[in-house]
Amino acid sequence: MSAYNYAFLDENTKKEIRRKTLKAIAIPGYQVPFGSREMPIARGWGTGGLQVTLSVIGKQDILKVIDQGNDDSVNACNLRDLISSTSEVATTTDTLEATIIQTRHRIPEEKMQAHQILVFQVPMPEVLRTVEPSEQETRRMHGERDYSRLWVQLYEDIVQHGEIRISYDYPVLVNGHYICDPSPIPRFDVPKLHQAETLFLFGAGREKRIYAIPPHTDVVPLQFEDYPFTVESYDQGCEKCGCTTSYLEESFDRVDGARHYYCSDTSFCGKKQVEQGELVQMGANWHG
Amino acid sequence: MAYVAVTGGREAIKEAEKLLKYYRCHAEGLPIEVGQIMQQMRLAVDKIMGEGSLYDPLLAALALKQAEGDAIEASFLVRAFRSTLPRTMYSLPIDTTGMEIIRRVSATFKEIPGGQYLGPTRDYTKRLLNMELLEESDEHIRDFMDTFMTECIEHSECDELQEVPSFPRVIDLLRSEGLIAGVCSVEPERHEHDEVDDITRTAMSFPASRAVRLQSMARGETGALLAFAYSSARGYGDVHPTIGELRVGDVPVMIPHPLHAGEEICIGRVRVSEAEIVVREDGGDEGRNSGTDKEPAKFGIGYGLCFGHNEDKVIGMGILDRSMKSHGAATPAEDEEFVLYHIDGIESSGFISHFKLPHYVDFQAELQRIRSIHERDREAEPKREEVKQ
Questions:
Q1: Is A241 assigned a catalytic role?
Q2: Are residues B283 and B345 in the same domain?
Q3: Structural domain for B380, as ranges
Q4: Which of A37, A112, B167, B344 satisfies CB 3.0 to 4.6 Å to B114 for a cystine?
């Protein structure tokens, strides 16, 4: 990797991305266009998050990469290898140890702190895309805070199906101004964004947008007074660690086909299992 | 333990890479040489350079070898490499009338100044598989080359071919007659600081400048350009194109001298394909012309240019250059956002292939919603029955 610059991208590019990131932080929820570069991983596989991570990372950082909550998922391994080899940082799977966590579609179960940054990989940054295909038009809608079509969509869901059908990519109102897409995290993770200690950065490489939710910012999922926002819930807990407050994934035994529920945050689940035998430091729950 | 599919990721990646190499190498025979690909897979190499957006035949050939011939994967490798190169300056505009032509045809006029040259084309060959190539040997190639070169030398000794003609643009014939509409097919050019827009440094915004449109199409995926242009000419659009001129040849790339103002330096030559498409416009089309009065009928020009020899691509590009509008698009090929956001092969293949990634978390969320709606429906069902009775 010595043929390449520190953290892969050239310094001018990193500077540009940092400036765009600062702008994003200054205007919570606003999508800042940037000159997204082609990365040595495919478009749509986390190139936006990757560019944000590479532009903010330094040698003293400790990196964690998760994909769907899993540190050992093949894409997470691939990204972690690329980032750690080009930017010479230590890696961890422990949420508490990491200073930068890059994630796809999950927020870790353990509450993150002020010194940490969570970088999201975003496939579709435009929350209005489902109601309006044109970028020219959606930019106008954000500019005028013309969100009526989104509200109508939610209303029609309730009329036709009795509830809002959006499962992930749940629209949130940030700092009382812009509506934004929190990336395809499940509903379960959305409340963690509200008044958090941690800086949340969102990178969409293919769509060439960066946006941010700074610490201590109001983040409210769209809802109606008589149809409040709800999150996923389970009748049972994780079959590995016994946790009843985590987000679970359903899977089927490869031999007998039986259905099982396990934590999607594998690092958290692993620590929980160890905790039952020995002393291990667990992070706090996001909601106190 | 259940569900090992996603665990052991690191080892799985390594083993997958080994398998990839195995599939590329397991057959008997000599490894294919990058030089051979560069010389004998000319059109594939050209396509990679165009879509990869980097003029380097050797690296394009290497990418093709590494990607086992997958054109999009090879362009992707080149594109990713390109990201690591600093952008130090912009070349001067290239005047393609000075092109060293290997091929030049026009579908608008039989005779054109400078003449038409069929050049290396398969257009008029019968598409029969040439079984002799199965047995092609050094000797065959040498024999052919000797005869061909002798013929060439004989031809070049004819007096009338001594001088290389110049090749003025065919559309200039129409322009001199005042039959070509202004180039204002899009919004007025926005040249802040007198610099051309650069899609590799700034995210596209709409309405797009013509520079942005042409840059996006120049590195667009050939198949995508072909499909969109075809849709417009076949039925979902109103473009009836005639090829004013199609050229393939080499042009010098000049940069301003870094020290001596006003001087230029040639930094190399690139092979390019160029198409100028003539499209009839019957005036009064408000989407194109900003004039208040109804314009007289004229011809519009669509322009296409890309690296290497790739005729389908530049013709498609020329058609789309003319068909795209910023406002009031009635068909997909007229909608500049639709076309420009979906022609990049690296972006489209990347996004489509990402669906192979695990979506366990998202799908779990989907399951919860679907089950919840189901349950609600089931609970509502008996009540409705009661109401009926």
A1: yes
A2: yes
A3: 358-389
A4: B167
Contacts of A78 in chain B (CB under 8 A): 9, 13
Question: Using an 8 Å Cβ cutoff, are B305 and B273 in contact?
Answer: yes
Tally of structural domains, chain B: 3
Which residues in chain A have their CB less than 8 angstroms from residue B358's CB? 67-68, 70, 73, 75
Q: A248 vs B364: CB contact, 8 Å cut-off? A: yes
- Give the distance from residue A45's alpha carbon to the nearest chain B alpha carbon, in angstroms: 6
Going by the DSSP 8-state scheme, the letter that residue B295 receives in this structure is P
Q: How far is A254 from chain B (nearest CA, A)?
A: 7
| Interchain contact, A249 vs B366, CB within 8 Å | no
Of B3, B13, B350, the CB nearest to A74: B13
Asked if B362 and A43 come within 8 Å (Cβ–Cβ), the reply is no
Residue B192 has pLDDT above 60, yes or no: no
Residues of A with Cβ-Cβ distance to B347 under 8 angstroms:
43-44, 206
Q: Which residues on B lie below 8 Å from A76 (Cβ)?
A: 9
Q: Do A254 and B4 touch (CB under 8 A)?
A: yes
Is B3 a domain residue?
A: no
**Rounded to whole angstroms, how far apart are CA atoms B126 and B134?**
18
Tell me if B104 sits within 8 A of B117, measured CB to CB.
yes
* Residues B243 and B270 occupy one common structural domain: yes
B118 and B53, same structural domain? no
Shared-domain flag, residues B280 and B377: no
- What is the distance in angstroms between the Cα of A251 and the nearest Cα belonging to chain B? 7
Domains of chain A: 11-129+160-221 (3.40.50.11310)
CB pairs under 8 A between A and B: 165
Residue B162 has pLDDT above 70, yes or no: no
Active site annotation includes A29: yes
- Do B332 and B192 share a structural domain? yes
| Residue A258 C-alpha, separation from nearest chain B C-alpha, in angstroms | 10
Please report whether residue B143 resides in a domain.
no
Handedness of CA B46, B47, B51, B52 (dihedral sign): negative
Q: Are residues B297 and B373 in the same domain?
A: no
Residues in B closer than 8 angstroms to A136, CB to CB, are: 206-207, 326, 337
Two structure tokens written together for A112: 């993150």
Query: Around B39, how many Cα atoms within 13 Å sit in the side-chain half-sphere?
Result: 5
Q: pLDDT 10s digit of each residue in chain A, 288 long?
A: 467 789 999 898 999 999 999 999 999 999 999 999 999 999 999 999 999 999 999 999 999 999 999 999 889 999 999 999 999 999 999 999 999 999 999 999 999 999 999 999 999 999 999 999 999 999 999 999 999 999 999 999 999 989 999 999 999 999 999 999 999 999 999 999 999 999 999 999 999 999 999 999 999 999 999 999 999 999 999 999 999 999 999 989 888 999 999 999 999 999 999 888 776 778 888 887
Q: Could you give the CA distance from residue A51 to residue A155 in angstroms, rounded to a whole number? A: 37
Report the sign of the C-alpha dihedral through residues A258, A264, A269, A270, in that order.
positive
User: Could you check whether the bond before residue A215 is cis, i.e. omega within 30 degrees of 0?
Assistant: no
Question: Are residue B30 and residue B173 in the same domain, yes or no?
Answer: no
Reported ipTM: 0.84
Tell me: cis bond preceding B332? Omega within 30 of 0 counts: no
pLDDT at B377: 85
**Is residue B385 located within the same domain as residue B246?**
no
Contact B362 A253 (CB under 8 A): no
How high is the pLDDT of residue B215?
97
